[in-house]
Amino acid sequence: MKIIRASSAGFCFGVRRAFSLAFEAADRYSPVYSLGPLIHSPQVVKRLQERGVEVVEDVDGLSEGVVIVRSHGVTAEKMEEILASAMDVVDATCPFVKKAQEYAAMLRNEGYSVVLVGEKDHPEVQGIISYAENGNVYVVADFKEASSLPRKRKMGIVAQTTQSYENLRQIVDVCLEKSLELRVFNTICDATSIRQEEARSIARRSDMVLIVGGFNSANTTRLAQICREIQPHSQHVETADQIDPEWFEGVEVLGITAGASTPAWIIDEILEKVEKLKK
Amino acid sequence: MKIIRASSAGFCFGVRRAFSLAFEAADRYSPVYSLGPLIHSPQVVKRLQERGVEVVEDVDGLSEGVVIVRSHGVTAEKMEEILASAMDVVDATCPFVKKAQEYAAMLRNEGYSVVLVGEKDHPEVQGIISYAENGNVYVVADFKEASSLPRKRKMGIVAQTTQSYENLRQIVDVCLEKSLELRVFNTICDATSIRQEEARSIARRSDMVLIVGGFNSANTTRLAQICREIQPHSQHVETADQIDPEWFEGVEVLGITAGASTPAWIIDEILEKVEKLKK
C-alpha cells in the first residue's frame, strides 16, 4: 500500500502559534486558563490540561494567573473585560484574524458601512464585527445575502479568514453596485483553500483518504466531506486507535490529510499504525 | 410618420454647465478664450466664436482676459500653468471629472497604486492621471490589460466618467486578485449608459433613427453605431440641412436621439424639418 501524506496536513500558522504560546505559558506560569478550548482538538486540550491549563468560559471570579485568548479571537468587549481583570493575558489571536479586527475598526472609524463576509455565529466573526460596533455592520454569508444590503455611499468589506476567494469576489461584485466607494481588505488566509485543494488532488490519486482531526473541528469535517465526494470510503478519525484494519482491504494507494487544528504527533501516530498494518 | 424623441437626447449635466458658463463669460468679459473647442459641436463652437470666444491651444502669449477650461478638464500641470498666467479662469471641468481627479490625487497621496479605467489618449484620462503623477499610475482599457498589472499591496481604482459599469466590474475582479487592499471609486456617470440604452430601445421600436451631433463627437458616433446595429438605415447628421427627404420613404416610425454635446436648438431644427416633410 502506497501512502501519500498531504504536505498541507495539520497546523496552520495561527494554530501553531497559539499552540506554542499555550505550552510556553503552561511551562512558565501558574495558574493558566484558556478561554474556551484552545483549538478543536480534544487531544491537544487534554495535553494542555495535563500541564495545568484549565478551560474556562469567562474570567469572572478569576483573581490571579494567566488567561489565554485562543486563535479565533474574542470580541472587543470581552478583550476589555479581560484586560480590566486581575489576570495577565496571553493573546493567541491569529495575527490574520487580528488584522481583520483592525480593518473592521478602521473602516468603522472612517465612516464606512462594514460588510463582513462570513458565518454569523462563528466566534471569529463575532469577534471581528464587535470592532465595528456602533457603526453599520452587516454579516453576509454569500452574494444572495449581499443582494439585500441597502445602498451605502461608502462600503468597506473584510472577510472571515477561512472564506473562499470566489465567495468574496461575488460579494464584491454585488457591493460595487451598491456603493460609490468600495474598499476591500482581502483578509482571507489561503491555508484553508490550499489544504482543500491538496485534499482534492490526493483523493483523486488514492483509493481512500484518512482525514485526521477533531470531530468538533469544522475545517476537518469539511476536508472529510471533500474527500468522500471523490473517494466515498474515506474515513475521518481523531486518533490511531479508531483505525479499523479492514478499511484497507484492496486499497493500493492511501491518502492522509489533517485539519488546521490537528497536531503533527497525532498524524505521526496514525502513520505508524498504518505502516504496521502493511507488514 | 410617428416620431419618438429620446428623452435623454442632448446635453448631459457637465456639458450643459460648461455651455452656460461659456455663454455667461462671453456676455460679461472680453477677451474670452476657450482652451480647445468647448465641446464637440462645431455649431456651438461657431456660436461662441460669434460672441467673441476664441479657441486657443495654449495660454502662452495671452496677457489679459478670461480662459475657459472645457468639461473634459486639463492636466494638473496645465491647470497650474493657467493659474500662474495673467489670465482669469472659468473652470468648466465637469464636476464628475473633477471628483475623479480628486480621488486619483487622494489615492496617490495615501500610497495606493492608481488604476484608471479608460482610454489612454482621451483628454479626460490624461487630466485625471496627471493628478496621480509621481506615484504608480496605470491606465487600463479592459480586464485583459488589467491582467498584466503587477501585484500591489494597495490598489485604488477610478474610472473615466463615460466608461461602462460592466467594464469597471471586470477590472475590479482582476485587481481584487492582485492586491491585499482594493479601493474603488465608482466615478462613472450614468448619462452615457442611459442614453445608449434608450437609443437601443428606440431603435427597436422604429424603422430608422436620426442621430444628431458633431461628426467629431465620440459619444454621438457610438450612438449612431448602436442604432445602425439594430436599424441599418439610421443616419448620423450634424445639422437640419443634411437631411435627405428620400431617407424617410416607407418609414412609419422615426426615432431621434442626440449626443451629449448636441444643443437642444439643433435637435429642434431637425424635428421642425422632419415635421415639414410629413405634410
Short description:
2 copies of one chain form a homodimer. With 279 residues, chain A is an alpha/beta fold. Chain A is 43% helix and 21% strand.
Task: Describe the 3D structure.
The structure is a homodimer of 279-residue chains. With 279 residues, the first copy, chain A, is an alpha/beta fold. Chain A folds into three domains: 2-9 and 191-278, 3-Layer(aba) Sandwich (Cobalt-precorrin-4 Transmethylase, domain 1); 13-95, Rossmann fold; 97-184, 4-hydroxy-3-methylbut-2-enyl diphosphate reductase, catalytic domain (Cobalt-precorrin-4 Transmethylase, domain 1), CATH 3.40.1010. The first copy, chain A, has helices spanning 13-28, 42-50, 76-84, 95-109, 123-130, 143-147, 165-178, 191-205, 218-230, 264-278; strands spanning 2-5, 32-35, 53-56, 66-69, 88-91, 113-117, 137-140, 152-159, 179-185, 208-212, 235-237, 253-258. In chain A, strands 1-12-10-11 form a four-stranded parallel β-sheet, with helices on both faces. A four-stranded parallel β-sheet of chain A has the order 3-2-4-5. In chain A, helix 4 runs parallel beside helix 5 (123-130). Chain A is flat, with a radius of gyration of 21 Å. Chain A starts with a strand and ends with a helix. The relative contact order of chain A is 0.16. At the A-B interface, helix 7 and strand 9 of A face helix 7 and strand 9 of B.
Report the CATH superfamily of the largest domain in chain A: 4-hydroxy-3-methylbut-2-enyl diphosphate reductase, catalytic domain
Q: Which stretches of chain A are poorly predicted, pLDDT < 50 over at least 5 residues? A: none
Basic shape of chain A: flat
The largest interface is: A-B, 15 and 15 residues
Which CATH-level-2 architecture of the largest domain in chain A?
Answer: 3-Layer(aba) Sandwich
Largest sheet of chain A: 4 strands, parallel
Treating each run of at least 4 consecutive H or I residues as one helix, how many helices of chain A?
10
